Amino acid sequence: MHTMSWDLYITKLMAADTNGIYPVKEAAICGYDGSIWASTEKLKCITPEEIKKLIGDTCCFHQCGPHVAGMKCMMIKDEYDVPEVGCLQLKSKSETGESYNICVGKALQCVIIAQGTKEASGGQLTNMVHPIVKYLIGLKY
């Protein structure tokens, strides 16, 4: 179905940023149909329903945030419609008290999801996700 090697994009997301910092802990690329094109181990359990909710109407996310691979999230910033950003910033909430920034970038046929390390900011994740979103849009993905 997909002629590209999507794993290379996961590798790129997991790489060091321009400051030599590795902000992304987990990553996935998923089709709008809910299929997982490539993923790190922890995000392999993201469901088609979760993916479809992420690409749908985000207006209710302020009251009832989405789930990402079973993690309850709250919306921090919705910039899907901002061309220079094209991303949704979320914060996970876990029972153990740990929380992580999560960035979801929406291309034409897929979403790119990056979960940060404990130290990573939403901006650092957006800086990793947005260039890939922009590139994939250019390729009509």
UniProtKB/TrEMBL annotation:
Keywords: Actin-binding. GO terms for molecular function: actin binding. One of its GO terms (biological process) is regulation of actin filament polymerization. GO terms for cellular component: cytoplasm. InterPro entries: PFN (IPR048278), PFN_euk (IPR005455), PFN_sf (IPR036140). It comes from the Eukaryota. It holds the Pfam family Profilin. Belongs to the profilin family. This is Profilin. It comes from Cottoperca gobio (Frogmouth).
